[in-house]
Each structure stands twice: as structure tokens, then as C-alpha cells.
Amino acid sequence: MGRITEYYHATSLEDAFAKAKQLGPVAAYVGGGVELVLRRNPEITVLIDLSRCGLDYITAAREGIEIGSQTTLTTISRSADIRQYAGGSLSWWAGHIAHNNLRDMITVGGVIGRNQPWNDVVPHLVALGAQVRLFDGAERITPLAGYIEAKQPGIIIKGVLLPAGNAGSNGFLWRFTRTLQDISTLHFSALVSSDGKLMTAANLVFAGRPGHTALYPGLSEELVGKSLSHETFARVAEMAPDLVEVGTDLRATGEFRRELVRAAIVNLEEHMTGVAQ
Amino acid sequence: MTISIAVNTVERSFDVQPDEVLLDVLRREGYLEVKGSCHAGDCGACTVLLDGRPVASCLTLVAKVDGHAVTTVRGIGDQAHPHVLQEAFVKNGATQCGYCAPGAITSAKALLDENPDPTEEEIRLAMDSNYCRCTGYEQQVEAVLDAAAQLRKEHKK
């Protein structure tokens, strides 16, 4: 932030959107607000607060679970519905990411809107098949995976939808870090369904460069219809390093990240079969 | 802009800049028990309760807090009337230089308000935002377990 001259408490989505549209690039929404404080943008002079727009909710319906964008990680971690969803993986991670007094500040809309390299929630939400409910004068729903690839400024994230049908699936998130609080060198997340013998559906998600989360449908298909055996996972572990897009930066080389991709699949095998190879 | 916050149950009005954070305003207004350290949400020294939940006041825009309730460690207890947690920190050697203690006690208070019988693991998770360079954390965990036991005993009476 440069010099903030106005802090505006929006009373509704319509109010917030109209204000942002009127002001253009000098306005920024305050969702969680944590990163807004840390990463000051000299262009921003007006902050539009969304906390009074009724976006702090978790509702379970036939089509799935919707999480309001102003819902904090702590609230997500405590939701009975989310605890039962996909083996409770999102609930567990929401209760362990960052640390306690940040989990009470970080909102799900904030992490999606910013999608910074240190946001561990986004890869897992993509693996869970989440969609986002957006508001730009009217509501529309779009897959999260697509939204983070081509997000448009000025649009408000109203909520995140977790699809129904994942009750019997296993969610998995692996963040490889040098220290507990460090930015992940590699994110890997998966959602796998099985009938006890064969895997019936799979979503494999990697962020081979921090902040660049992507779903790998081809790789995911390699698990579908296959048995929960060491041979199945060993074959995918062999293929994955060549297919996953990795990057080189000060944290790690691409070569190192490719080895982590292999290790991530081994971790998934252990998670799915309960057996360490 | 003028905002209203109930600080330690007392309604206060403050003239603030829209980009100020809660920590800076509290200290300017004399709540020096709230400590600033990293100013990046890492260390937990500045922890206060916002509507009963622990937050890093160094990352909280004060304008966002307008109309809400803030509790500092002095609102939990003071020298004349210390809270059981504060006494337990002293008794168990959980404070040495004391700089992290306001934040640590505040996080612990939020935990015990919700969970009067926490496990050691739950205590460590609830206080994972509070760095302490002196005690090595063991005494802090013992202090919270001790305080929790005392509070349960008092509650039974």
C-alpha cells in the first residue's frame, strides 16, 4: 500500500463491486487482509472491506459443500461437514497450515484471490475438484483450476464449492518444505476413489513451480481402473517426473523437483495402501 | 477516520489512518502490554483476542476491527488480579525475558476458553504461533496444563 486514503466497509456484494468498478485500479478488496498488509502496493489508495457482505458461511447441500469466501481456515478446520469430506484432508490441513493466529485471519477467498506460492490450500482445493462462485454484477460458477489460470481483476470471489460425491474418496496433500514454515518447494495433492481393490477416480495436482498449480488429467487416468498395488504406483512414479512441469529457482533446481515428483507418488502409495515401500 | 473498539470491555473511540494496523494503534493509545516484534505475523508476540479468537495484531488492519471487541493480556488479568494462566506461567518457569509472554498467554486463554481439558498436542497446536527464545516451550506447555487443571477444579466447586 502506498497512502491509503479511504477504508470502505461494503454492505453487500453489489455495493463492493460498484465501488470497485467506480474507482478502478486504485481500489483493492480486503478479504483476509494479511497479504495486503505485508505486500504494499503503491497504486492502491482505497480498500473495500468484504467482511460485512455475509460471506462467512459453510453450507452443505445435495450438490456439495459451499464455503463462503470470508470463511477462515480455523472455521473450515472445525466444520463437521468438511471433517467428513474426502477423508477429512481439507479439514486437517486448514487446521495445520501456517500457525494458529494466522489461521484465524486467513480466508479461503483470500488464498484463492492471491494464489501466492506459499498458499497450500489452493492445490488441495483443485484436487478436490472445487469450483468458485464469482460475482461481477451477476453470479457465475467456474472450475477453480481454470480460474487461477486466468483470473480477472475486479471480480469478487463469493464462495468455493466442493462437489458432492467425494464422501468415500481419499484426499491427500503433500508439501515439501525445507523448514516447517518455509514456502513449499513442491506441492502435490490428490483425490483418489477406490472400491477397495481398484481405483475408480483420481485427480493428481502438482505445483512444480511455487504458485503454479495444475491438474494432470493424463497422469490421473493412469491410476483409474488399476489395482491399489505397488506396481501401479511404481509405474506412475516412473512416468510422472517427465510429465509434470517443474521450474528452477533459488529454492531448488528442476532436476531436484523432478525427484520430488517421484517421491510424491511414493507418498501417495503409502497413503492409499498404508504400506511404506 | 474514527473507529470504535471495545478494548478489554471498555468502549473506546480512536482516530486512525485507514492503513494502520491494530498493533500500532493499541500501543499508541497506551496498551503497551501488546508487544511488537517481527511485524510480519511470524512471531506471535503481538497476539490479541479479536472477538475471543487470537490474531496477529501486526497484520490486522485496524479499520477492519471497527465495532469489534479486542482483549489484550491485561484484559485477561493484571498484577493486582492475575489470571490463573498468568500465575501458572510464573510458577512453572514459563516466562524468562517475558517478551513473548503476553502473546503466549493470550493464545493459551483462547484455547482454554474453548477447550478446558486440552491435550499436550492441542496446546502445542494452539500456541504454534508464539515463538519463545528462552523457555524451550516445555514449561509453557506445562503451565497451560497446570492452569487448565486448576480452572477445572475451580469450575467444579
CATH topology of the largest domain in chain B: Ubiquitin-like (UB roll)
N- to C-terminal separation of chain B? 48 Å
The span between the termini of chain A is 50 Å
Number of individual domains of chain B: 2
Q: Please report the number of helical segments of chain B.
A: 6
Order of helices and strands of chain B: EEHEEEHHHHH
Number of domains of chain A: 3
Shape of chain B, please?
globular
Biggest interface goes to:
A-B, 26 and 28 residues
Regarding quaternary structure, what we see is heterodimer
Name the structural class of chain B.
Answer: alpha+beta
The gyration radius over C-alpha positions of chain B equals: 15 Å
Which range best describes the helical content of chain A: under 10%, 10-25%, 25-40%, 40-55%, 55-70% or over 70%? 25-40%
Please name the defining characteristics of this protein.
heterodimer; A: Uridine Diphospho-n-acetylenolpyruvylglucosamine Reductase, domain 3; Enolase-like, domain 1; 3 domains; 5-stranded antiparallel β-sheet; 4-stranded antiparallel β-sheet; 12 helices; globular; B: 157 residues; Ubiquitin-like (UB roll); 38% helix
List the helices and strands and how they pair.
The complex is a heterodimer of chains A (277) and B (157).
Chain A: E1 6-9, H1 13-23, E2 27-30, H2 34-38, E3 46-49, E4 58-61, E5 64-68, H3 73-78, H4 80-83, H5 89-94, H6 100-103, H7 108-114, H8 121-127, E6 131-135, E7 139-143, H9 144-149, E8 156-163, E9 170-176, E10 186-194, E11 199-207, E12 213-215, H10 217-221, H11 230-243, H12 254-273
Chain B: E1 2-7, E2 10-15, H1 22-28, E3 47-50, E4 53-56, E5 69-71, H2 73-76, H3 84-91, H4 101-114, H5 120-126, H6 138-156
Parallel strand pairs in B: 1-5
Antiparallel strand pairs in B: 1-2, 3-4, 3-5
Helix pairs in contact in B: 3-6
